[in-house]
Amino acid sequence: MHKKLFLIGLLIIGCEKNSETDKNYDSSQKKIPNDIRWVTKSSEYDILCQQIYKNAWDNLSKILQKSDSNSCIVMDLDETVLDNSQYQIDLFASNESYNPESWSKWVNLKQAKLVPGAKKFIDNVRETDVNIIFLSNRMAKNQEPTIKNMKDLEILHSNDMFLLRIDKEDKKHIRREEIINGTGRMSQKGPLKVLAYFGDARHDFPDPNDYFIFGHNMYMFPNPMYGKW
Ligand SMILES: [Mg+2]
Asked: What is the CATH number of domain 37-220?
């Protein structure tokens, strides 16, 4: 009897050890780097993102609820709303680093998932009259698969606007100006008041000032997997 229990115990420990080890390795048994593992496996990343979205809603709900359709929030997509960690795992497994071709292929697979907390926050914004503008450096030619991916994730609304990148010169600050001034791609809609910005990189935000303040109406998400540091 004791021997049986001992063997069962060993089996359980063995299984736990295996699952502990498996989650740290990719399909070819190479150990996934810490940055990707932190995003994909840690409860800390999950909690942190949910915490940021919760704080954002707690701080912004009143102003959003009393604002009209001449206002918007501006959200980056990748690693702010959409989780592309699987692309990073795939790159690692094939010994590649980021390149526009493989990235475009990934975008066209439409398999991005959601950053924790994003859907709940976006659902809350839908209850208000405020527009959401997705301002992303995904290429404009990939708008269709991006929209399909977001539709599948049930975060798309017919009023959503997309300001994706046309070319290298089409920097984010140029598109932010178009929103504020109602020019270029925003000329049909007219100028909108931006109530908040969301992103995972410094270039997703204007310079802070008396109105735009990190932690108040600008929210930065953690992304240790890539960026310009
Ligand atoms: Mg991003």
From this structure: 3.40.50.1000
**Distance from C-alpha of 105 to C-alpha of 99, rounded to nearest angstrom:** 10
> Six-digit token pair at 87?
């692309």
Residue 221 alpha carbon to ligand 1 centre in Å: 9
Distance between Cα 9 and ligand 1 center (Å): 45
Map tokens 């809609």 to a residue.
189
Q: Name the helix (H) or strand (E) containing 165.
A: strand 161-165
Where do the structural domains in the chain lie, given as residue ranges? 37-220
Nearest to 36 by CA among 49, 21, 26: 26
pLDDT digits (tens, 9 = 90+) for 142-189: 999 999 999 999 999 999 999 999 999 999 999 999 999 999 999 999
Q: Distance between CA atoms of 15 and 25, rounded to whole angstroms?
A: 16
Dist. CA 74 → ligand 1 center (Å): 12
